[in-house]
# Entry
Amino acid sequence: MLNLIVKLFIVILLSCALPAYAQQDDNVVNSTSQNLNDSILSQPRAPFAAYNPTASMPLSSGERFFRNKYVQMTYIGVPLVVAGIATRGYASEKFNHLSQSFAPDFNYTYDEYLRFAPAAAMLAMKACGVKGRSSWGRMLVSDAFSVALMAGTVYGVKHTITTERPDGSDFNSFPSGHSATAFMAAHMLHKEYGNVSPWISVGGYAVATATGATRMLNNKHWMSDILAGAGIGILAVEFGYLFADLIFKENGLENFIEPDFSIPQRPSNVGLTMGLSLPLASLQIGDGQKLLPSTGSRMGIDGTWFITPNVGIGGAASATSVPMSLSSDSDQQLSFDATTIAVGAYESFQLGENSRFRFNLKTLVGCNIINNRNLLPDVIKTDAAGFYYEVGASFSVALRRHFGASIFCDYGGNTFSTTHTPSSEFNLTRDGRHFNLLHTATIGISTTLII
# Structure
């Protein structure tokens, strides 16, 4: 009996002691875990490191290509320079015709100052204490390298490839120094403060784009000059910062964050478009006479809001200029110039799981506003506006979270009415009002802000 009582006492004692021991053991584990976490968190974070939720996930070969350091350095600048070289001559003349058709009397010099605005904004933010990528010393050295590379390249090419300006004032048109300076300044701003807000980068590039457009409207540069200058400016900054990184290594980095490579699920966007418009038919004007359109050009903006990952609504506004000649008198140079505004539906299909590539379709309807209503002076006059429709397809790629590019092919129909007056000079007896339809196919490229 005594033995039984002793055994029960031991069991009760152990039953009380074991939970206390277990709790003590848990406290030791928790304490050890907490100390380990504190040790990890207290370690200094490498300046080049950034939180990447997909860092542990294996990357495809294509994704590794997009994230390659040197691809990221050149994927904007190199295509711009190549496009500038490729569009010299014929294509640039078409875009010059577009700018001069819509703004023949444009003459403003604010581009002389506008090109420096992004750099001034960068310095002002730095002076006000807004923390960017680099310290003062590292930033100034990076920018000094960039300026030297840009200036040396631009002026070296200008004096090697002598290209006459559109206004005939001299022979150092290619590439555009103003555009190179503006895009260099914008890319500096992006490098230093793009991680604070993507809209800072958007503002800088918008100012740079306005500078290039003003140079064209002032008839000082061809489109090819603007594209090449922009590419040189961006590449100069990339290599300028690369040289500074080799010198400073991790010293002087204040707020460096790796680029966001995540793929947007809904590709809502705003973009700039440019392309060549190919007429598909002539216009009959009676008595066997025709207006023969030739290759024109189009520039504009478009935007789409996707309700689902595949379906969206949006619109586009563009300016189009299509040169024409009279079939009986090829020396009679005419032009159909119109501003188009259209809205409609968009579809987008991702080409593979987690793919950066998409195939897109659109159907738009709207109106065209005729810029030059005297299509054939004193003989054919157009109405002020007409109906417009367009269908199109494009392939796009999301190069980063907020930036993409695409190639597109659009088919559009400009409908408009004309009033004819008989003319013995052109052997035309047709009179009254007549309906016309100008078909065009536009092939081009666009750069996109993904929002």
Q: What stands out?
A: The chain has a mean pLDDT of 87. The domain at 65-248 is CATH 1.20.144 (Vanadium-containing Chloroperoxidase; domain 1). The chain has two domains: 65-248, 269-450.
